[in-house]
């Protein structure tokens, strides 16, 4: 095959690259401007990995045995039918992923509701972006992570990054920040914090108190953008009633950040012309994640940033299709186009596109954590089909999740490598990966991208769309196309009139290189690179301040668990590591779990640099090698979450959920630290 222009398989920046066979070269695409991180450079290795799955497998007497595709799909369809006949439609659940293409996310949602008639579908995006999505929807009436192009940041004078570490997680992004004065909010001194003129390091779980303290300082300093607040927003008084009591000295006592630094941050933000506030997982992954992101949005609104040319608020999406993956129906409560499943008009419209009775569509189902907890229970699903996710490593309290998977009557996993979740399955279906198929993704700035097929898949491998097509036919439900462009044509119609309206996007326009940011409501519409310039998406066109109050982490340290633990990513690994742990150049750099500890804290626990340590919480424990980090708060440890088995950080994380987004509290829990053979 000739050289093909495509995009990286990993994060939401979706850097442009050219593939020649499995050889990768960076491409001059706006978000990466010729740059790639180490993951992008080495991504071609995935295409030739000897660990690649190429044959469907069925578990026989405890071992996975190769079978033909027809045998595997017949078997799956028969088992799903039997279980639904015995226990009802919700006996079968579907689990998707934020890395799946728009076409796959769309078809999974349709497959669940039309072919299976189950309400039980959700996806791993709950772990990544759902708090920012909920907060953005409340404030602006629509959730597009960055409602402006990444390249706008080049003209920023000041950027505040709250809980974002792009210098490590998406390095090419930082070139857009070079001209800006950076304020970084992070309990750790990350590589991004190293770039900042002001690093605010709040105690874990106190970010909202910090946002309230800075908002107070803005108003106290006379910097409230009063005319913007009057003209474009509602609800300031309600939000201020809470923020008024968060004078910086009070916020200092809770966060550990000095009141002087809060006032300095407020002055920097207020006195610059082009200002952006960006949030990411550090703000979101809390039991109060929606409120915390809401606190940063309130600050942005008070400064008059959202919907103003040259300034703004945005959320840095994580997974490759984290944006598109949350728009087209693989969420428990959602229909394509970011429509709500409980909206009668939305049900009627989408049912019309699908050719079914609106009353036949199930209602909203369980969200991710509740779904995983219900597996195999009396009233829960008896079968689960997993596409593009590795929950055994990525879900909080992961041993419990593994136990729930083991309690199922039937587990099917479609993947291209034998992930830790696939290794537990009754049926494993080998599917195509990024460069072996066409598909669209929507990057962190809402731009729809065509990731083109660059090489043929290995013999024996089929696309996820093929799998759904084959199963739907066996279930007596035609109408599930296997060709990506055909699925996209249907998605266009299904999304028409929704918030995320793709109806004017076509493969041809994307092949022609058009930069189409949704909404694109007509065939000749140029797309919407900058949203909210005229009005916000609420019916009255105004943004909403949302009253938010700091309540703190769901679990506080005590005598038994005196430290706090936080988790995150490293440059060389991606999410559960199922892909990047297979790439030698990446895995050689960070081959195993580690725990960052302040040397004094480590020594008090009898630990030296390089020692294996036991990190224990109320839910479980993990083993990781000690790394001394002088800049870390003595009351905090940090672990990456990419590693399997006893090195899983998620063995100890707290599954406490945000009440709105249902996102777990990955970012903080109480732990103890000890030698592997000692008591904490
Ligand atoms: Fe890929 Fe993200 Fe790295 Fe770009 S920054 S090369 S999209 S992993």
Automatic annotation (TrEMBL):
List, alphabetically, the CDD domains matched.
Answer: MopB_CT_Fdh-Nap-like
Which keywords accompany this UniProt record?
4Fe-4S, Iron, Iron-sulfur, Metal-binding
Originating species: Amycolatopsis pretoriensis
Write out the GO MF terms: 4 iron, 4 sulfur cluster binding; metal ion binding; molybdopterin cofactor binding; NADH dehydrogenase activity
Please give the name of this protein: Assimilatory nitrate reductase catalytic subunit
Cross-referenced InterPro entries, in alphabetical order? Asp_de-COase-like_dom_sf (IPR009010), MoPterin_dinucl-bd_dom (IPR006657), Mopterin_OxRdtase (IPR006656), Mopterin_OxRdtase_4Fe-4S_dom (IPR006963), Prok_molybdopt-oxidoreductase (IPR050123)
Quote any Pfam family the record assigns. Answer: Molydop_binding
GO BP annotations of the record are: respiratory electron transport chain
Q: Which residues does the UniProt record annotate as the domain 4Fe-4S Mo/W bis-MGD-type?
A: 1-49
Q: What PANTHER family is this protein classified in?
A: NADH-QUINONE OXIDOREDUCTASE SUBUNIT G, RESPIRATORY NITRATE REDUCTASE
Which Gene Ontology terms of cellular component type are present? Answer: membrane
């Amino acid at each position: 095959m000739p050289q093909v222009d495509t995009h990286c398989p990993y994060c939401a920046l979706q850097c442009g690259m050219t593939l020649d066979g499995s050889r990768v070269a960076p491409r001059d695409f706006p978000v990466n401007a010729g740059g790639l991180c180490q993951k992008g450079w080495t991504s071609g290795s995935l295409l030739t990995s000897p660990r690649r799955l190429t044959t469907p497998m069925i578990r026989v007497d405890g071992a996975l045995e190769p079978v033909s595709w027809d045998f595997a799909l017949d078997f799956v369809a028969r088992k799903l039918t039997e279980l639904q006949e015995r226990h009802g439609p919700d006996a079968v659940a579907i689990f998707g992923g934020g890395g799946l293409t728009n076409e796959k996310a769309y078809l999974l949602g349709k497959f669940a509701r039309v072919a299976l008639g189950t309400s039980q579908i959700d996806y791993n995006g709950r772990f990544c972006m759902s708090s920012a999505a909920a907060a953005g929807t409340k404030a602006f009436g629509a959730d597009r992570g960055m409602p402006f192009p990444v390249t706008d940041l080049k003209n920023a004078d000041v950027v505040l990054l709250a809980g974002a570490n792009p210098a490590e997680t998406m390095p090419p992004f930082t070139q857009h920040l070079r001209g800006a004065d950076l304020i970084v909010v992070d309990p750790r001194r990350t590589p991004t914090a190293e770039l900042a003129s002001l690093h605010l390091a709040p105690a874990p779980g106190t970010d909202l108190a910090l946002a309230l303290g800075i908002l107070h300082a803005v108003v106290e300093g006379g910097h409230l953008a009063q005319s913007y607040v009057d003209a474009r927003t509602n609800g300031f008084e309600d939000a201020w009633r809470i923020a008024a009591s968060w004078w910086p000295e009070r916020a200092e006592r809770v966060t550990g950040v000095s009141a002087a630094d809060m006032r300095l941050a407020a002055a920097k933000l207020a006195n610059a012309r082009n200002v952006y506030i960006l949030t990411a997982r550090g703000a979101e992954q809390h039991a109060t994640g929606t409120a915390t992101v809401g606190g940063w949005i309130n600050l942005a609104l008070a400064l008059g940033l959202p919907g103003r040319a040259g300034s703004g608020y945005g959320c840095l999406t994580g997974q490759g299709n984290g944006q598109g993956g949350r728009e087209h129906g693989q969420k428990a409560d959602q229909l394509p186009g970011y429509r709500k499943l409980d909206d009668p008009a939305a049900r009627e419209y989408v049912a019309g596109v699908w050719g079914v009775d609106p009353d036949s569509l199930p209602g909203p189902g369980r969200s991710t954590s509740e779904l995983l907890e219900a597996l195999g229970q009396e009233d829960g699903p008896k079968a689960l089909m997993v596409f593009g996710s590795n929950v055994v490593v990525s879900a909080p309290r992961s041993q419990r999740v593994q136990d729930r998977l083991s309690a199922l009557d039937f587990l099917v996993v479609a993947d291209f490598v034998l992930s830790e979740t696939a290794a537990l399955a009754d049926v494993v279906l080998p599917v195509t990966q990024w460069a072996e198929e066409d598909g669209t993704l929507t990057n962190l700035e809402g731009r729809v991208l065509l990731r083109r097929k660059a090489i043929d898949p290995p013999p024996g491998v089929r696309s996820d769309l093929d799998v759904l097509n084959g199963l739907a036919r066996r279930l007596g439900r035609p109408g599930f196309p296997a060709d990506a462009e055909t699925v996209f044509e249907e998605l266009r119609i299904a999304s028409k009139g929704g918030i995320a309206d793709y109806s004017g996007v076509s493969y041809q326009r994307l092949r022609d290189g058009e930069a189409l940011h949704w909404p694109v409501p007509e065939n000749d519409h140029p797309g919407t690179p900058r949203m909210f310039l005229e009005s916000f998406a609420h019916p009255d066109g105004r943004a909403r301040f949302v009253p938010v109050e700091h309540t703190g982490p769901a679990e506080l340290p005590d005598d038994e668990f005196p430290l706090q633990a936080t988790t995150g990513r490293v440059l060389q690994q991606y999410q559960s590591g199922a892909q990047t742990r297979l790439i030698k150049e990446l895995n050689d750099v960070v081959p195993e779990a580690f725990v960052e500890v302040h040397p004094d804290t480590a020594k008090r626990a009898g630990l030296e640099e390089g020692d294996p340590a036991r990190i224990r919480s109320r839910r479980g424990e993990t083993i990781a090698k000690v790394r001394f980090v002088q800049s870390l708060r003595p009351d905090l440890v940090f672990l990456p979450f990419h590693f399997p088995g006893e090195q899983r950080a998620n063995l100890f994380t707290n599954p406490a959920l945000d009440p709105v987004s249902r996102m777990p509290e990955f970012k903080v829990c109480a732990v103890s630290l000890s030698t592997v053979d000692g008591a904490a």
